[in-house]
Fold:
Amino acid sequence: MPVDPKAAIEVTAFAWVPDFAKGQVRDLRVRWALEEAGLAYRQRLLDAMSPRPEAYFQEQPFGQVPAYRDDTVQLFESGAIVLHIGEDCEALLPRDIAGKARATAWLIAALNSMEPRILELAIIDFFHRDAEWARLRRPEVLEKVREKLARLAAWLGDKEYLEGRFTAGDLMMAAVLRALRHTDLVAEQPTLAAYLARCEARPAFQRALAAQLESFAKSPAAAVA
Amino acid sequence: MPVDPKAAIEVTAFAWVPDFAKGQVRDLRVRWALEEAGLAYRQRLLDAMSPRPEAYFQEQPFGQVPAYRDDTVQLFESGAIVLHIGEDCEALLPRDIAGKARATAWLIAALNSMEPRILELAIIDFFHRDAEWARLRRPEVLEKVREKLARLAAWLGDKEYLEGRFTAGDLMMAAVLRALRHTDLVAEQPTLAAYLARCEARPAFQRALAAQLESFAKSPAAAVA
Structure:
């Protein structure tokens, strides 16, 4: 769906971010879920480089993006927003209790079992590359990430998606694995590399990524605070 | 509810852990949710000190605890298990769409916005206290945790719970904040200290904690692999 200034759903994102963060900011996950669900959305773009307006903390208590609103609810946390969109979208969350719970388990696994370790590595690589502590710490973090990836690859085996069919769990897992793009860690596991490519080839992902990148391409002056 | 060997719900936990982890292992979150819901469960206790049996990775792809099963589904990830229990328990998840989504947002915020930083600090303090990298890194991690706690306290204000009434979001937030018990960080924010005490005073939490600690009190020889 094209971004539509008149849509009922609003996604808050950043007007501009440094190159390493382009295609990585977490509103991508929400845009992707909305594309899978076929829902149009309007965007509100914040200036990432300025302090967040105090009123924004009422929408996003930690000042992060994305924030989200529709006719029913105002929300924060990309994981919760994707689950909320999934409540009415079988492409994201199966309707049966077991299928829905399993998809949710993978979404949470992406956010709580995979992402903390991956983020630890990304923080070292993008923000502390030359620090002494980072040089000393990185090998062990790398090993922990490798262990998680090996377990994920073992689970996946020859399945197309984590539960056979695509769900919100795959959406979140793929979004989290993308934070390793500056490394060879995913490529070291051909099963995972093929899985990530499969997720990223989905038309809904491609439209979501294009929409995020397009929003950055506009002048930072277009940002509203 | 007492732990009941004949219950339909099974929770997998550890038979024994070192003292610093007692009352912290993540099956506590699931026990607490089951107590709030008034559901009996049986427990299967794994030997934490031995390698996980290979078959267990089919239940928990990363070899962690808890794992969970009921008549409908086999699950992993404490966050997903709590949400699944909440689907049939208004004490955990309000029935209205907006209330349910807001409670879910706080549960995810606990797992993805708060816990990664808190865990980074706990990993330093419990596993790397004497490492050079930890000495260099700790002050900044501490500052990041303090920032998150201050934002959480600001949101909470004079509310009893994050959304006014208790939800699964408070359950998860309290469980995550408990990982700072070895520090004064929560006490530095009187609003948060009172909130955590309020959550921990709930009879369901007290019963869940007692059940976890009681399982550790048994001989390690009682563990089944």
